[in-house]
Amino acid sequence: MARWEPMLEQVMRERAPRLLAYAAMLTGDDAEAHDVLQDALVRSFSRGRRFDHINAAESYVRQAIGSVVIDRSRKRRPVPRAPEDHSHQPAPVADRDAVMDVRRALRELSPRERACIVLRFYDDLTVPQIAARLNLADGTVKRYLSDASARLAEILGTDVEWDDGPHVVRVVAHAVKGKN
Fold this sequence. Notes:
This protein has helices spanning 5-14, 16-27, 30-45, 54-75, 95-107, 111-121, 127-134, 138-156, and strands at residues 159-164, 167-172. The protein is mostly helical.
């Protein structure tokens, strides 16, 4: 048995559900999330990397998941969506319903916008950290965050405010005619 195999087995046994949920949040698709997680595991463990602790291995796989999602998005052409294809429903009261609303809303974002939003609000990374992880300029990350926040606010019918150090960005969704 290779020296990395026990750590891979431990990651799969103890951390796979969390990593899969993270991948699903980034991809917006459960089936694709499984593929992304597998690719990230291969990237993380195929070169015989040694991790001293399961937390280090999970962190490395989590970073690889983000890279895999971005790499896959580069290979695809965006499919234009007609505005009437976007349904808008009032946010449900139950937490599970709210989570599902957010997941559906995240699917409406481009892969890079979704990656920036998830890294900012789920992983709690700063703009410079996101830029370094995705190999983008700080200004580009800010633009993706701003555009994604505005789109999410529109889809979810809410106001969004995020704080990035000295800058606070406030995004307000405007009511769409014919929808509450």
